[in-house]
Amino acid sequence: MTRSQLTHEDKAFLSTYDPATYERPAVTVDLVILTILDDRLVLLLVQRNEPPYRKKWALPGGFVRVGNGKSSRGEDLLEAAQRELSEETGLPTDDILLAQIGAFGAPMRDPRMRVVSIAYAALVRPTLAPFIQAGGDAARTEWTALNDAMKMPLAFDHPEIASKALQWLRDQLVRSSIARSLLPPTFSIAELRRVHEAILDVSIDPGNFRKRFLRMIDDSVIEQAPGRRITASKPASVYRFVDTGRS
Amino acid sequence: MTRSQLTHEDKAFLSTYDPATYERPAVTVDLVILTILDDRLVLLLVQRNEPPYRKKWALPGGFVRVGNGKSSRGEDLLEAAQRELSEETGLPTDDILLAQIGAFGAPMRDPRMRVVSIAYAALVRPTLAPFIQAGGDAARTEWTALNDAMKMPLAFDHPEIASKALQWLRDQLVRSSIARSLLPPTFSIAELRRVHEAILDVSIDPGNFRKRFLRMIDDSVIEQAPGRRITASKPASVYRFVDTGRS
DNA sequence: TCTAAATGAGTATATATGACTCAATATAAA
DNA sequence: TTTATATTGAGTCATATATACTCATTTAGA
Prior knowledge:
247 residues, Arc Repressor Mutant, subunit A, 26% strand
C-alpha cells in the first residue's frame, strides 16, 4: 500500500504512466449523524437552499478531496467524513464514532451528475449535541427523530441511507458496546437502558435489563464508577465502560 | 430518486447545470469470490501480468462504467460487480450471491492514481466452481485457501479487503441462512456442518449441530427433501432451505 | 463377517431469557 | 411531618439454549 512496497519495475512503470481519462463519477461522503435527545434517537438533517431538492431536508455531506489524483492524492474516505462532520457541526471529531455503513451509487441518485457516495454513521454523545451549530452551505440544521425522518421526503436516496444506518446501529447494539458512544463517560443502568430502548424502539423490562447489565460487569466490560446519579427518586449507582484501548 | 420526483424548479436548474470539473477519483469494484473446495473456504485470485504488482496475486475487479456522467449514466455498483464477476469467471450471475462489504479509498492504495474501490463478496456454489474459466486480462486465476491468501503478499490493499470479506461472512453465518449460497439445492446435515466449519475454521460437534439444525426445521427455515445422500457410510437424509422468496 | 464411519438420539449441566413479584430508598407533594 | 410515588435493586420461576458427553443404529466396504 505504500510506495516502499513497490518493485523497481513498478516505479519505472509509474514514471511513464498517464492515467487514461475515463469518465469518472464524483465521489462524496454522506453522514448520518445520530444522537439521543429526550430518550429518542435523532439524526441531523440540513435543509437545502440550492436546487435540486431545494427546501427539502437532506443528510449532510460533501465531496471527497482527491488532490490532482497523481502527485497529490487528497484525503482518505474516513478523513473526508471527519472533515464534513466537523464542518457541519463545529464539533471536534476525536470523540465521535464514525463508521462506514455502505456505498451508494445508483446511476440517477443525483440528477446533476453521476455520484457515488460513501455513507458514514456518526454517533454523538448527547452532552455534545447542544453545541452543534449550523455550518457549511446549509440553510438550517435540525435534529429529527429517526422515526419521523423515515417518513419524510428526504432528498436524493437519503431515506435508503438513513435506513441502512439504523439497521447498522441495531446490529451493532446487540453485538458490541456501541452504546458507549451515545453516553457520557459515566452513566446509570437506566440511562443505558433508555439508549437501548431508543435505538431498538421497544420498551425493555428494567429488571431483566439489569441482569444482563450485571453480567457485563462480570465480564469486565463495565465497572462501577464513583458517585451516584441524582434522579427524581432513589439515586442510582453510576458505571463506566472499562477502557480496553479500543473504541 | 427518479426524475419524476423532481420539481419544475429542479428541472429548470438541471437544464442549465454544468457539473464543475473537480478532480475525481477512479471508481472500481473488487470482488472476493468465495466457495468451498475440499471442505475449505477458498477465494479466487488472479495473477497480474501488468505493472504495478506484476506477477503478484490480486482480487479480480475493474472500473465502474459511468457513461458520460450526464445524459448516459452507466451502471449501478451492483451491476458493475455482476459484470466483473461474469467476465472473470464466465458464470451466470443470477445464482451467485453478491453483497457489498465496504468501500476502500486510501489515497495511495493504487500507486497509479486515486482509486476508490467498492468491494463485494460473491458466494459461489461448489457445484459451479469447476466451470470457472479465466477471463479478462488475467494471466491466471486460481482458487486459494483463505487462510493461505491472508499470508500472501497480495497486490494493493487486497489483504485488507479479503479480511473484511471473511469478517462479513462469519457475521452473516450466525445471523442468517447465508450458507445456502454455498450449497447445492439439497444437502445433508453433515454438508451444512462442514460449510460452517470451513467458514469459522473450527470443528463443530455433530450432535450439537444436529440439534441446532433440527430447530431450523421447527422454524420452517429448512425442510426435508426427497432422496438420500450416499456417503462413505450410512446414507444421510437430505434437506433444502424453504424458499421464502428472498435470497 | 467384521470393522469403520457416519447418522441419529439422548443425558447432564450451566447459562440465558422473559414475565413476574416485592422490598428499599429518596424525592416531592399534601 | 407525613404520605404518595417513582425508581432502584433484588429475587423467583418457567422456559429455552449451548456445550460436552455417551451410546445405539445403519450401511459400505475390506
